[in-house]
Please model this.
Amino acid sequence: MVLIELKNVRKEYGVGDTLVHAIRGISIDINQGEFVVILGKSGSGKSTLLSLLGGLEQPTSGNIIWRGEDLSAYSEDELAIMRRSEVGIIFQHFFLLDSMTALDNTELPLLISGVSKEDRREWCMHLLSLVGLEERATHYPNELSGGERQRVGIARALANKATVIIADEPTGDLDSKKGKEIIDLIYSLNKGDGFMKELEWQPTIILVTHDVGMLRKGMRVLTLSDGTVISDQIFDGNYDKFDRLGNPSAVETQYEQ
Ligand SMILES: Nc1ncnc2c1ncn2[C@@H]1O[C@H](COP(=O)(O)OP(=O)(O)OP(=O)(O)O)[C@@H](O)[C@H]1O
Ligand SMILES: [Mg+2]
Model:
């Protein structure tokens, strides 16, 4: 089922007298439950595309359609409600509140949505155990490692039972081993095993990365160049098909798994 449809989407930014064409006419469909990875060199438009897909920004022209509804018809308030209930965001720099425990940080989106304290606690303890932090619920961010902080960030992104999880370089602040663990965790959430299966919940994931080593078999890889999609393919496990920037290529480089 198509969840998000982009029709000839353009995004331009005015900078002084010049116009920056960040996205130049992208038309793609994102299906419910897909794991989409956006690759491409710096400035190619990855973060802009992610923000557009997640309804964080409106396009300059073209249409972004969520389950058949054009977001351009939404007011700012309606967009904010849509984002709060449907979109979970995992940040590169975690963005946890230092004065709050892991559990309180996880609960934050639900506090804003007015969910009762009892319900928040129970659900968020579930989520913390899902990301392997059951024992750390009462710890503060400065008592956690980078990888653990990002696990809290993931639990928080899941708190509102988001339809779509968006993540811009979620492993950018982690060493490569911790980064891979985080990708494996996000991948398992998307595959809908165990706990997710019980809940019949398979969030769609859209993730920006610089690191081709983060790809896992079955992920859909969109490669951007200069604001356009130059390749759209399902990763078959063969790293030789991409160069380090995610450009499909014949470059014979072996990537560390
Ligand atoms: N708010 C903005 N105002 C002006 N120009 C912007 C803005 N946001 C992005 N751009 C420009 O749009 C283009 C695409 O930017 P974007 O941040 O999407 O690239 P990116 O692929 O995410 O790069 P990186 O890998 O460095 O994060 C760049 O030329 C950038 O300078
Ligand atoms: Mg970016």
